[in-house]
Amino acid sequence: MFTRLLTLAALLIGGFAWSAAAQQTGAALLAQAVAATQSAQANYAFDFELDTREQQWRARFHPNANPRLRLTQPSRESLDNDGRRAFDRLAEQMDGVSWCASEHMGRVEDVRLVREDETSATYAFQPTAESIRGEQARRFADRLRGEMTMLKATPDISRVRLYIPAGFSPMPLVRVDHVNIVITCAIAPNGRRYAAETVTEMRGSAFGQDFNERSIQRARNLSAT
Question: Which of 25, 89, 152, 199 shows the greatest Cβ crowding within 10 Å of its Cβ?
Answer without folding.
Answer: 25
